[in-house]
Amino acid sequence: MVFxxxxxxxxxxxxxxxxxxxxxxxxxxxxxxxxxxxxAGNIYALKGRQFPESIAASILELQKKNDYDYIFIGSxxxxxxxxxxxxxxxxxxxxxxxxxxxxxxxxxxxxxxxYGGKTVLEESSTAKIxxxxxxxxxxxxxxxxxxxTEIESPASRITLIGAEDKxxxxxxxxxxxIIVSIGxxxxxxxxxxxxxxxxxxxxxxxxxxxxxxxxYHWLSEDRQxxxxxxxxxxxxxxxxxxxGQIQHIAGMRGSKTVVAINKDKAAPIFEExxxxxxxxxxxIVPKLVEAxxxxx
Amino acid sequence: xxxxxxxxxxxxxxxxxxxxxxxxxxxxVQNLPLRLETLSKNAIEEAVRIKEKKGGKxxxxxxxxxxxxxxxxxxxxxxxxxxxxITGYERNDPTRTAKVLAEKIxxxxxxxxxxxxxxxxxxxxxxxGKIAKILGxxxxxxAIKVDVEEGKARVVMATESENLTAEAATPLVISxxxxxxxxxxxxxxxxxxxxxxxxxxxxxxxxxxxxxxxxSNLAPKSERKKLVFEDPEKGIPEVSKAIREAIK
Lengths: 296, 248
Ligand SMILES: Cc1cc2nc3c(=O)[nH]c(=O)nc-3n(C[C@H](O)[C@H](O)[C@H](O)COP(=O)(O)OP(=O)(O)OC[C@H]3O[C@@H](n4cnc5c(N)ncnc54)[C@H](O)[C@@H]3O)c2cc1C
Prior knowledge:
The structure holds two protein chains of two kinds.
Chain A: E1 2-4, H1 7-17, E2 25-27, H2 32-36, E3 42-46, H3 52-66, E4 71-74, H4 77-90, E5 94-104, E6 107-114, E7 119-125, E8 129-132, E9 147-151, E10 159-165, E11 178-182, H5 196-201, E12 205-208, H6 210-215, E13 236-240, H7 246-252, E14 257-262, E15 275-278, H8 281-293
Parallel strand pairs in A: 1-2, 1-4, 2-3, 3-9, 4-8, 5-8, 11-12, 11-13, 13-14, 14-15
Antiparallel strand pairs in A: 5-6, 6-7
Chain B: E1 3-9, E2 11-13, E3 34-36, H1 38-54, E4 56-64, H2 69-78, E5 82-87, H3 94-105, E6 112-116, H4 127-135, E7 139-149, E8 152-158, E9 162-169, E10 172-176, H5 188-196, E11 201-203, E12 213-218, E13 227-229, H6 232-247
Parallel strand pairs in B: 1-4, 1-6, 4-5, 5-11, 6-10, 7-10
Antiparallel strand pairs in B: 2-3, 7-8, 8-9
Residues 183-185, 209-211, 224-229, 241-243, 245, 247-248, 251, 261-264, 267, 280-282 of chain A line the site of flavin-adenine dinucleotide.
């Protein structure tokens, strides 16, 4: 069974599993009918806005009824809590934050980042619950469409007071072919317009490091790349004024070509770049735009 | 109405200083300095702020090793009133850690159990849910804001797409995110006073049962070209060429 409160992640997990396992899906996301295009089994759509406790209770019912071999859960704020609650309910171990897995003689071999992204940890366990990182697969539609059933939410000890949407709605960094990403080296919010000509010249999407998106709110949160943000894999990733801390690298490691501009020769980003230019981004970016436009 | 809070914290190796053996890729974890884990500091800060506003007591609880006394001292300096280190930690095993901590929490009267939503080195993010389940208390997770009122707490919970405001009755478990606050740097006087507080330790008798086998734990190899130009005049044409090829 696959659960995610973020539709795209549920779709990715179903696509990853297609051909190896039959799946049912549980979703508390926005559009269960979209999930149904990628999952041939039953789609159980949880009604209303739900918290981890009530989601886990609904999944527990389904697990008791259908006895799934594995429960794959999208690794999101809500997903990780649901996995934890279910693991105590069911006595199942959890393999968390996985980026890939295979089964081998009744055991499951999983891969994940460890030490804040500095290492890749490969483990063998008997885990039956797995929390799955975004970006595990491209969406692959299923030959047969799933059947959607709505499920009422069980009573909850948690009262919802209000909800505020924080997606800008327009960006899908995970699908972007070219990304121009800015870090604290941008200095101030007004300077963002100085890199816009580059974004336009390469027809890219603008993204940022965590301080830019989360601490300063200069870009919306859904543009954050990194361990706790989006995992992106564009053809070109252009890092401007980003130091390249490991938590940032964890989000852009899948990029095909990495370009870095940083005034500090010793910045770790240069260890993770194909092309690097040492210097002031405000001097270099306009020249680079000119070079790209004039085809030099 | 005073609020009694148990705050959970963890000690980790300083992962920013972690290097891998260049030939094998093995992380060189020996002799690295230890520090109070990042999100634990946010949890301590939030607990102490609530105490400063409402009165009550903050009790710090850590599952670790004898070496965690420095982490407990730092927690004291930040404003934790009383603390305990449960020793016997061996490795990342959330099921065991949750059991060890929850069994202790059951013996300490509290309104709130507070902790980080994930830890900076393992990023597993299971502890809050597991502890809430064992205690049978409601879970308000991933908080970017906490308000405590008579007999209940209200949090703003950050999910990937929304900020949800939610409320539940105490006693309850709250996990916080890194964005919730900026942890204080305690003044020297407070650090000195913290040094005089008792370091209580107690060994756990709960053993781990999970039979996870580590196959490998290595730094991923970087296959990047690493063509770094110190002269922009040389670098710009190269970079421009690479970009133009990619966007064709
Ligand atoms: C649990 C956890 C999760 C995290 N998750 C993420 C995450 O998902 N994403 C993320 O990005 N971070 C994450 N972080 C934070 C991460 O550790 C770094 O703090 C962050 O990535 C640094 O952002 P930065 O590179 O923009 O800023 P800095 O590290 O301050 O780097 C700024 C860089 O800009 C350069 N610079 C300054 N001025 C100029 C100029 N004029 N021209 C050119 N270069 C210039 C400087 O030399 C410097 O290298 C996380 C941290 C933790 C603890």
